[in-house]
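for the writeup, i need someone to sanity check this before i put it in the appendix. the sequnce is what the collaborator sent (i think, or maybe the updated version? ugh). structure was predicted straight from it, no edits. if anything looks off just tell me and ill rerun, i have time this weekend
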Amino acid sequence: MRDYIKIYDDVVNNTFCETLIEKFERSKTQHQSWPEDKPFFTQINFSQSTEWKTESETLLNVFTDHIVKYKKDFKIHENQWPQQYSLEPIRMKRYLPNDSDEFPPHVDVDASRNMSRFLVFFLYLTTNEKGGTVFPSIPFDSPCKQGSLLMFPPAWPWLHQGIKPITQSKYIVGSYLHYHGN
């Protein structure tokens, strides 16, 4: 199963990452705690404001370019890939270095509301000693490295965990590819 986990380094430059972080921190009115009752992180859904249009377009291009690379790297043939698919709204997440901001082991397809997801994108905007993504049952760790993109399937074999940062906040941008019906 590790074969379908891929890390691409330096997919965006440090300036782009730092600009996103600064804008996130200036946009406090758009912050959402998730989940609301016991937050694991704070996020902004880029689709809920036109302020993020330019950044969304840049990220869409990055993700689209890496879909091609991912398919090539894993020798995925056209008959193995959906002819039509769409991208879930892009979200930026912040995890603080505290005792609560982390994402415990989970999968990203666990109910009818998200069963159309078939590929995950996590773009790390910071480099952290801790704060990567761990796949405990495989086992595999993805470091939290600024500008790197982690891609993998979101289904049950890819149980993963967002490790909490220990010294500085962790910022990531994430989205998913969805099966798109005719």
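The mean pLDDT is 92. The radius of gyration is 16 Å.
thx in advance!!
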